[in-house]
Amino acid sequence: MYFFTGDEHIDHKNVIRYCNRPFNDLDEMEKVLVNNHNSVVKANDIVIHAGDLTLGRKEVAVRYIKQLNGKHVFLKGCHDRWLSGKALQIWSKMVDSQFVVVCHWAMKTWARKHYGSVQLFAHSHGNLILTPEEAMCQYDIGVDNNSYTPVSFEQIMGILNGKKEDHR
Predict the structure, then answer these.
(1) 33 phi and psi, to 5 degrees?
(2) Strand order in the sheet with 90-95
(3) How buried is 76 (Cβ within 10 angstroms: 0-12 exposed, 13-18 middle, 19+ buried)?
(4) Please, where are the H alpha helices in the chain?
(5) Which of 11, 86, 105, 126 could form an SS bridge with 60, CB 3.0 to 4.6 Å?
(6) What is the mean pLDDT of residues 92-121?
(7) Phi/psi of residue 143, nearest 5 degrees
């Protein structure tokens, strides 16, 4: 099973204030993120992280990752200095007959867009307003937009398909 997330911002104290996150401190935020993650992700699930896992310290990233269930793919965001220069910025794959493109940033166009592919992004912390047409094929997978929990591929497709139904 595939899960998607992003913008965890581990070890970034100011993100609590910037994004109005409901946490008293970094320890509480990290505990909630780990618990929420592990409540939905199982050992063999694949998790695509769309950037900004942490502000840069590799030891913080490693400590956090060790606590998480699943097999992980990390895309480079604005703050991922802990990742090597060879880290992916875009991940794309056919998932259950649906072509999916994931990037830290929302895109205007992407691979196979005109053939019904979907684009998943983070970076905007739930604040990017999509047009009705964009909302049928793009989704913000960042934690601020998803109750601080990774979202499954099935959940995302349900949301996007619901927007298509609403648009008819």
Answers:
(1) -60, -45
(2) 90-95, 98-103, 118-121, 138-140
(3) buried
(4) 13-18, 26-40, 58-66, 132-135, 153-167
(5) 11
(6) 96
(7) -60, -35
What pLDDT was estimated at residue 66? Answer: 96
The answer to whether 52 and 10 have CB atoms below 8 angstroms apart is no
Q: Does residue 61 contact residue 33 with C-beta atoms inside 8 Å?
A: no
In sequence order, what are the beta bridge partners of 119?
101, 138
User: Could you give the 3-state DSSP secondary structure of residue 5?
Assistant: strand
Threshold 0.90, pTM exceeds: yes
Task: List the one residue out of 106, 105, 61 whose CA is nearest residue 83.
Answer: 61
Dist CA 111 CA 102 (whole Å): 10
Instruction: Name residue, tokens 């794309």.
Output: 92
Calculate mean pLDDT across residues 62-83: 93
Distances in Å between the alpha carbon of 109 and those of 65, 80, 112, 139? 31, 24, 9, 14
pLDDT greater than 70 at residue 131 = yes
The closest of 134, 129, 130 to 118, measured between CA atoms, is 134
CATH topology of domain 2-167: Purple Acid Phosphatase; chain A, domain 2 (3.60.21)
